[in-house]
Amino acid sequence: xxxxxxxxxxxxLLVLAAAxxxxxxxxxxxxxxxxxxxxxxxxDRRTTGAIVDDEGIEWKVSDKIARQLGDRVHISVTxxxxxxxxxxxxxxxxxxxxxxxxxxxxxxxRDVVNEIQIASPSSLGSRMNDANITAQVKARFVNQSQGAFxxxxxxxxxxxxxxxxxxLVTRREADAATQIARTxxxxxxxxxVFEYIPEEEARRLDRQGAEPKAPPKxxx
Length: 220
What we know:
The chain has helices spanning 3-25, 34-42, 48-69, 93-104, 124-142, 171-182, 199-209; strands at 74-80, 83-90, 111-118, 155-159, 162-169, 189-196. The chain is of the alpha/beta class. The protein is globular. The model is unreliable at 2-39 and 213-217 (pLDDT under 50).
């Protein structure tokens, strides 16, 4: 079985697992259709293990923060290649520090970038505006005329008008994505949380993601 086939099979199992758990707990977000998930995973530069870990890390850290801090804070947890980005608001410095400690103590977390602001939780209107900015940035990534980078290689998170960009990218790709994000309406600032890789490594990872699926075996 090729690396791509293994990744597709693993994520298919994850989709089924999440679907079976969702009606019971309500803790998992609704996932995209199988075809969309397969296409995204096949071209992802992360390993299958990292993708699986990122999903688990986000859920575990969010659950820990909710249990410890409740509605006193508004903290979003984003994990990419096992690096955790914490964004949002907390009323006290000790709340901010606790959220970071909970994230760092979580299994498989490599590092934590703490961007939590000391402030009251943001309003619903502010969060809706952030969601709109994220959608605009992603749309502009897709519609870029130069094709400087693949849109699914850059993860976009927005908090209070500040756009955070994550991903395994080259310096050239990072610069192109940053330029698009910073010129999007409503964006106050862009923070790069990228992991940088050489151009040769990027091409190697992309070739692996483009490997054709192995043909099915005949017989038992």
